[in-house]
Write a structure and sequence with these properties.
heterodimer, A: 7-stranded mixed β-sheet, 5-stranded parallel β-sheet, 14 helices, 12 strands, B: 6-stranded mixed β-sheet, 4-stranded antiparallel β-sheet
Amino acid sequence: MNKTSKGKTSKGLTRRTVLSGAAAVGLAGVARAQTPAEVKVGLIVPLSGIYTRPGQVMKMGAEMGIEHINAQGGIKALGGAKLKLVVIDCGDTTEKAKNAAQRMVAQEPDLVAATGAYLSSFTLAVTEVTERAELPVLTLSYSDLLTDRGFKYIFQTAATASRQSELGLPTLIKLAENASGKKPKTVAMLMDNTATSVATAKALKEKLFAQEGLQLVVEEVWTPPLSDATPLIQKVRSAKPDLLLFMPNAVSDAKLGLEKISEFGLGQGKIPTVSFSITIAEPDMLQSVSPETVQGIMTIVANWGSKGHEALIAELKAKYKEPWMTQNVISTYGDMWLMKEALEKAGKADRNSVAQAFRTLDAGPSKYYPGGQLKFDEKGRRVGAGVVIVQWQSGVPVTVYPPELAQSQPFWPKKS
Amino acid sequence: MLRMRSFLPPLLFTIAYAVVSLGVTNSYYQLILTLVPVWAVFGLSWNLLSGYTGLISFGHAAFFGIGAYATALGQIYFDISPWLLIPVAAMLGGIAGLLIGFPTFRLQGHYFALAMLAYPLAILYVFEWLGFQEVTLPIKRDAPIAYMQFADPRLYTLLGLAIMLATIVLTQVIERSRFGMALLAIKQNEAAAEAAGIDTLAWKLRAITLSGAIAAAIGGFYAQVLLVVTPASVFGMLVSAQALTVVMFGGVGTVWGPVIGSVILIPLAEILHAEAGARIPGIQGVIFGLAIVCVILLAPEGLFWKLRDLLRKRDVSKATVNDAPEATAAKVTTLKPGSQQRAATGEVVLEVRNLSRSFGGLKAVQDVSFKLHKNEILGIIGPNGAGKTTLFNLLNGFLKPNQGEVLIDGRNMSGQRPHTICEAGIGRTFQVMRPFLRMSILDNVVVGAYVRARSDGEARKLAADAVARVGLSAVADRVAGELSTKELRLMELARAIAGQPRILLLDETLAGLGHGEADEVVAVIQQLARDGMTIAIIEHTMQAMVRLVDRFLVLDHGAVITEGLPEVVTRDSRVIEAYLGKKWAGHAAN
């Protein structure tokens, strides 16, 4: 009651102001009174501490998404309401992420959806809070655990870690067979012990190596930061595997390993090297290693700027000086469109309706995520989520698989 | 009564905090209100070990993390309620404390701190290796209360407060007991504590066990609040640092320090994160760090002590007018020459047989034998470097002899730990004074009394007696740091006699005293001897010694040159030669 009466007085005031001549202000007031002027969506990512960089990149993607949606008329089902991005720094620890999520749900009660939080540990903590607050969260984190908790308000757009290795490895082997004429037989695996690497390695060792007829000849695990890669690479050199899986999650670790590979004369495809995260294809890599060192290295990732995203990539380059589009940008950009889709379907700027819309969404093939549909299963995993294989070619990591997204032909490094 | 009154402030504080938190409905502020008691309790647990004993632990995250993982994994794998798991976590933390403490207490100072740093880091890797990189607590939609999963976040705060109140009360009880006294004594001076009859290792182990148990319990509760456990979030460097930060900021060695630190720092960090961090990401860390640096520079021992010192100064300046006329040593009887009233009996209470100790090539004490008779005063003299203090260190157990025996009442005690020898009836003072500067005179002396006293009350009574015997009753409540050298010497004497020893070893008790002051102290020693104490004293001031002692033992180069009555020894040419050189020995002969 109180609220409506207040609304009336303010409207009355506006009319008087219009009469008194401040037309522009008055018109804006009228417009606000008629439609929900904006719908708030959240971006909760690390913007301080050691994970700042990926957080910033995700922010770029979100900003571009919001800008494009609003420029194309906003949410039509809500009378052209504009999206507004609320950015929250989730810091660099699990506790900070949890606190930030609590702050997000407490201080921004009219958020309808959010996306985040880069590292899967942070996403885990954030979604513990949002689940209880019934706020739907999209995430590009791909830990299986995220959607194994029976939560109803988390939607994972990327293929889970175990699914990625399931999808990626056979493709990779096929690629090797086509390009070099023979199937790899032996494999070496060098990995750090972060959650994603461990999950990937588990799937590889328990199932996929046997399935692909690969024999694991070297397995070494390190705890980041890697201080010296010599003993690791020495083992690889003496074992001479057909394939090297190198799985760092920090740019500095990737650099140390690749330099050592190069130093031992195993680079440039002497031993074909494959990774499982975007770390090895981050723009930061070129600040510390030469394009020759990374030439030919492949990585299996959940998403990448690909064929069909040329305009976006060009805009990203022009606006933010990013040389290429990583998973963090394209997925977060896509999340904004996905939120729009859900809002159109829900027809209401209300978090529970939006969550329900995500659950029942069936919006056809996805434009900004590889493979599958814009549709979630009962766990909140995107149906048919695929992977992208990216290869360093002349100083740029380009998409080489799947064919419909490939920007370039893959080449299999020739073993001499 | 006194006891109950001291529990009142924490109780009132807790109630006030609870009332405030019940009025907060914003779930974010509520979470911060929950985290304050969590970190306060963690700070208190750190304080219990490091604040009171002075052994800085950089690795309290080890206990915290064990508690958090025990609580999380117990729920995941065994479906046990956290109401049960948190006590279990406390037990595990206590065991971990014992296991970590036993080897690590062999180290001291920085070495201890650095060794402690290693434990959480090592355990962190173990948990990563076990595959527990990310553990989430299963959500219990059907029985939330049974699994400590409250819909109302205020319940977490209340629970956290309950744990905090319990920890505060426990800390206060410890602070005032023999336990707390022992820890404080260890902090101020571990060697003196040992010599005063405190089994320092046993007390330190008790402290780390209890500290580990509290840290693990609150770690378990923290897991329940955070819902996600990762090795970095419970074993990480930042966790250990958090304990240090809140305590150093609030005040070390007091129950209020961690509470003050936590109440200020935790919300401050969050506000900075929410307000400043939103504008310039990362700036929150800079401001937070600078704020801590400033406070540490201005109040190195923490806010609590700074405030208390300020308040004290005001009180003292008011009270000085009344204080001045009270003469400190009013009760001490004036010096009477000679000690003929006493009759040294023939009974041997301490016998030293062929005692030797060398440091590398230096034979500090070689083949020393002598007997100390009941109720006599034996003066041990000799030039600098003659091995007098080393001899005392061998007698009271600071050093182990290479060979020889020390018989106390006919029992061989050589090689025993100092506190055991203290229990057997030997008290000592030090050449370099070792007072517990932060403690009052009476408390300093109480530390020495525990070796005989069965209860806290008895210890206080023994201490008060001892203080009276040395004539310091009038200033018994002053802090040791404010005393003059003479008063400190007397206080050390009181501490040594509070444990009711039969034999007293006095190491240069008159050093650094003016003429009149020395006489006062000598009078006290004579009175002790009249009361039946057997005394061995090292001293340079010949004048005082000749009047004081019954017999001399003269050492040079670690060996006994001679022993006998004062008038005989002072004329002995070997003694004069040792002190003054050959030339003067010739003069003396004439």
